[in-house]
Amino acid sequence: MLDRTARKIKIIRNEHGERLDYTFHKGEGNRIVVIGHGVTGNKDRPALVALAEGLAAAGISALRFSFSGNGESEGAFTDSTITKEVADLGSIIDALEGYNVCYVGHSMGGAVGVLRAATDERIQALVSLAGMVHTQAFAEREFSDAIPDEGFMWDEPDCPLSQAYVDDMATIDSVAKRASEFAVPWLLVHGTEDDIVPIEDSHDILQFANEDTELLELPGVDHVFSDDGTAVMVEKVVAWIDRNL
Fold first, then answer.
1. At what angle do helices 108-117 and 82-94 cross, to 10 degrees?
2. Which of 85, 136, 174, 186 lies at a 20 to 30 A Cα distance from 204?
């Protein structure tokens, strides 16, 4: 079990034995928020760090982590798929026995959250930040100009586009209908100026969500909650989690 008195406590490995890098922000009591990032991201994205710090300041523990193959976590980036990340999230939650868990996922991490919540009752509240819903459409829209196993995501040399990633996105196709498979409190947060995951993704999945689901649209905010978008997002999300977890 994760020791609530420390910040960097124990090694957490996924089902492949790969170490998952994480940072723990100590709060009070037994509430904890697990924060997952999007494709090509890691646990140190500014908006995610700000959210973790805001939660801790409100007395709610937070654990932000990098999925395997990303950031300082072990594993190959070319093996990083939504399916593998769903399993990574399970390994993180395995280490949180005794905690009431909320998961916050950004972008592709939002799709991960939907799929995990659909099968894992340990997630007691869910937040999707600019959450990806239509996975195949996303891959086709963003990476159609790159050849799998040869090209790169958004021309970033550290982020090769693998056939495994493309195939997984196509197999999943969309996580929209999986939203009907869980009934925990759920907050969808999406900026109106998001040009990576269109706000329509959140509108689409809302049609399948339980009645305890809220969509918060942030006017003028982009995909990564730049500038003032971070402060607004943190304020709204922390307050919602404090009420619902």
1. 60
2. 85
206-237 burial string, b = 16+ CB within 10 Å, else e? bebbeeebebbebeebbbbbeeebbebbbeeb
Closest CA to 34 of 118, 129, 132, 175: 129
> Where do the domains of the chain lie?
22-244
Task: Identify each DSSP E strand in 96-184 by its residue range.
Answer: 100-106, 123-129
Q: What is the pTM of this model?
A: 0.96
Q: Are 184 and 116 in contact, with CB atoms under 8 Å apart?
A: no
- Residue 65: both structure tokens together: 């982590």
CA distances from 195 to 17, 138, 190, 222 (A): 36, 11, 11, 7
How confident is the model over 62-106, as pLDDT tens digits? 999 999 999 999 999 999 999 999 999 999 999 999 999 999 999
The yes or no reply on domain 22-244 and CATH 3.40.50.720 is: no
CA 139 to each of CA 63, 108, 133: distance values in angstroms, whole numbers, following the listed order: 28, 11, 11
